[in-house]
## 1
Amino acid sequence: MPKTMFVSILGLPNVGKSSLLNRLLGEKIAIVSEKPQTTRTRIMGVLTQGETQLVFTDTPGLHRPRTKLGEHMVRAAHDSLDGVDACLFVTEAGRPALQEEETAMLRQLRRQPVILVLNKVDLLPEKARLARQIAQLSGGYAFAAVVPASALRGSNLDALREELLALADRLDLPQAYLFPEDTLTDQPERVIAAERIREQLLRLLDQEVPHGTAVTVEQMKERPGEAPLLDIEAVITCERESHKGILIGKGGGMLKTVGTRARKELEAFFGCQVNLKLWVKVKEDWRNREGLIKNFGLE
Ligand SMILES: Nc1nc2c(ncn2[C@@H]2O[C@H](COP(=O)(O)OP(=O)(O)OP(=O)(O)O)[C@@H](O)[C@H]2O)c(=O)[nH]1
Ligand SMILES: [Mg+2]
């Protein structure tokens, strides 16, 4: 019988939640960066395997918010628990202890079975530490399973999929697929395109500048012709005039680099040539202005 299981992916910023989602799906739908607080909204990814449809929700990292946007992000993670059947709780392999945000979240997870993923095992030279961590964490919480993995290398993800499918067999789930079998994500193409541009900003810029940007795709149109060509126009909004200068760079150099790299990513994603135009605008302190947060779809 077909069945559907909703699974939230939760954890601190930067532990590899989005990397894990992309790896499980075999497609990059969520952007990834080495900076914390990369993911800003819930991102759904669907994996239909055998008789089971796994509907994952990637969430923003659990942190202490400093802006209104940050509050929305943390709330989005908490709200992902509504009606969820199970959780993947991601933490880094070898970390000596859980942080406050992690224990607070685990306290909330009383109703759903939780699979603990110890990600980034590739960075752990001493495997004995892993055994100690597993023993320690299992003492404080009854996990349905504990799976060391590397989202970056793709290692041990088969074991994780097996644990998820075994869990789906044990739970009382709706006996149907809730999405068509070929569904991948709820993200519209425009949002994916905007996110790929923001990913480059996170990779190329430092400190508060990339965190203070929002990207919106204003135009996305296919040009008819022999070889398809996609015209994409996007606006990068930043929160200060000084940030605008940094984003544009000397002689427009930074914006050009962002544009070139994002265009290559978009061409690979859409499988056609892309003509990308970028603009930079300033909206003072937008991360603390509810109306603007809503306009950017980040509420
Ligand atoms: N070495 C190693 N790095 C990893 C692994 N998984 C993810 N990373 C890296 O960790 C960083 C954060 O990855 P993300 O997937 O963006 O982390 P996240 O938990 O989604 O972060 P937020 O969206 O900010 O909450 C990136 O630089 C990834 O390449 C892993 O298994 N091993
Ligand atoms: Mg993320």
## 2
Amino acid sequence: MHPIVIIGSGLAGYNVARELRKLDKQAPLLVISADSGHYYSKPMLSNAFTTKKTPETLPMNKAEQMPGQLSATVRPHTRVTAIDPAAHQIRIGDETVTYSKLVLALGAEQIRLPLTGSAADRVLSVNSLDDYARFRATVDGKHSIAVIGAGLIGCEFANDLSGAGYKVSVIDIASQPLPRLLPPEGGALLKRKLESIGVTWHLGTSVAAIDTRGDGVRVTLANGDAFDADVVLSAVGLKPLTALARAAGLKINRGIVVNRHLEASAPDVCALGDCAEVEGLVLPFVMPIMHASRALGATLAGKPTAVTYPAMPVLVKTPACPTIVSPPADPAAGTWEVTAAEDSVKSLFLDAKGKLLGFALNGKATEERAALTKQLPPVLG
Ligand SMILES: Cc1cc2nc3c(=O)[nH]c(=O)nc-3n(C[C@H](O)[C@H](O)[C@H](O)COP(=O)(O)OP(=O)(O)OC[C@H]3O[C@@H](n4cnc5c(N)ncnc54)[C@H](O)[C@@H]3O)c2cc1C
């Protein structure tokens, strides 16, 4: 009997394997991963200094432990090079593996800015444990870090690195941090609180060039300003990893297109996690992965199950300014109603009839998270 093959050992790949095993202990299972195959929580990469974790202590389980836990074969450091859906086969270089079902849990890739300058190739980004190990080795003994991008990941790294004693500068084309998640009042509070722990902002501008300057770099901005830094971290966003699926002829939109049963456009091929677009939704966060894993685990065990998503607020790991966001599905469907105090901003996104469609809470207002979440409509009912 051919195995169920899962490509990817991130939260999506390993969690669907765990969910399958709760219901089916027998089906042969093969997990293939291009990376180390250690089981770790990716969100912990952007607050590892605060939580006193290192690349060595971040994995909750080492790759060697996973076959025993999952009753599966696990092949780390193994890259799948092609998929042949008609033959139910994948290729790993010259090797061919036949699957009964194929699960694509491929994750996302960093968006790379077209940067110029003699040190443009020294810009780092973090989207895996291996990336993080490289980053930590690079910043060790250094003092100043420029972060490109004031979105969720950029702000989290800014807080974490600043707390660890680094001099942090953040650059973003937007005029406030978390521009897509917070109305201006919430962005202003987050900006001020991060400033209070030493973060410097360069907002409303972009990076024009990164050039070598001694052991570090000189960052030149589009507005003409320039400053020196030891290390540059790019956190300008992620996009679903779709090349493998596209080459196999699967339907791709923003991500690998799947229905509510997480089925892609070829028989016996499914996708979930950061690589997938579920009924038009690309949601690169942990909670959607947990819901999708449960549904797909059941489906693979022979109980076809559609995924549903409740409201899933995201906690932004900026302890300098506690922040929780539940962005509205459609930013045109309502307006923000903002109540701001000294250390707190409560922003409710309401439709014309006053129905709550989303929220953004900063500071003390985060205490209202549970009560407000109950009022939100499901993301996918
Ligand atoms: C720094 C950071 C902080 C975050 N913080 C939060 C947070 O606070 N809250 C939250 O909800 N979300 C957060 N996220 C997002 C969340 O971590 C991701 O949504 C989630 O981890 C994605 O899991 P995944 O399994 O889909 O992808 P990944 O973890 O990227 O796993 C993809 C896997 O596929 C493998 N792979 C890819 N291509 C191939 C191939 N051709 N052959 C073999 N293997 C392949 C990779 O090696 C990897 O094992 C954060 C993300 C980052 C980067």
## 3
Amino acid sequence: MDVVRYGRLLYEKGLTSGTGGNISARVGDLMVITPSGSCKGMLDQTELVTVDIVTGKAVSGKPSMETPFHLTVYRKRPDVNGVVHVHPRFCTALACAGTPVDPALTPEGLMVLGRRVPLIPYATPGTDDLAVMLSREVEGADAFLLENHGSIAVGKDLKDAFHRMETLEAHAELQYRLALLGKGRPLPEDEVRRILRE
Ligand SMILES: [Zn+2]
């Protein structure tokens, strides 16, 4: 199952630690999500929890505390089949500083992250408030920073969401290092439009 495989990869690549983060995949009208309080590097297929996307009810087990915002993504984005939420070092540093990610620093940033990575205002983890905050931006972007919390990436499948999260963290690290250098020059707007084919 992809949830087990990408959970392990997120852990091995240092994108999550302890029991932080949660990941899910859409399977028809259901979503398969990591269980509450689990280490993403040591998941077992039998621990995964299935939740009905329409009713929000868990078919079995105790799903991740962040189930509300995963449901919001699947309900509002029929094109999305995988969601990754973690607390990677550099994304979380920018999110705690209130500094948005600027994808226009590199062509890869623009191609993978799109024109905008919204910074979602802080709301208590696991609450419907956080799901509502995300729902305001979820139709206009595929990657998000959560203020004072972490990051979210979505994709057409879990592999796509995983790659986007990896790129988001690499981009956040680039931005952190540029801040140390005291400079960083985004691509000019005409090049941004060319890359995005706008
Ligand atoms: Zn979190």
